[in-house]
User: What shape does this take?
Amino acid sequence: YGAKNSMEEYQIYFVVGAVGDLTTKMLAIFFENDEAKKAELGKELQEKFMPAWLTSLEKVFSEIGTDYFAGDRLTLADIYFFFAYECLNKATDSTLPGFPKLGALFTRIGSNPRIKAWREQRPKTDH
Assistant: This one.
């Protein structure tokens, strides 16, 4: 799941960092005690951060031009992305339309036999 060269390493770090940015925003909302502030943070995430975040990832993925974020095989970047995209789908109750390449990547990763088996066997949770 690692890089074969320095360019792939950069691509993996980019995605891992982008998912970290999203996670930081989502955790801030989750742990916010003030309901008005929580709603404000949620609105900002939904209306400003997510469109920019998804647009950026779709652009980078398109420019890479392969079936995965780094090279021609599943890497840590794809697993991080898969987790984040799955969480966003659950949080927004949608398939996040408008980002067809990311949606296709999500489907491709989810059809990996080992990931598919893990998803079917893992404990069912809200997250």
The CA atoms of residues 45 and 51 lie 9 Å apart. DSSP finds five helices and no strands in the chain. The mean pLDDT is 90.
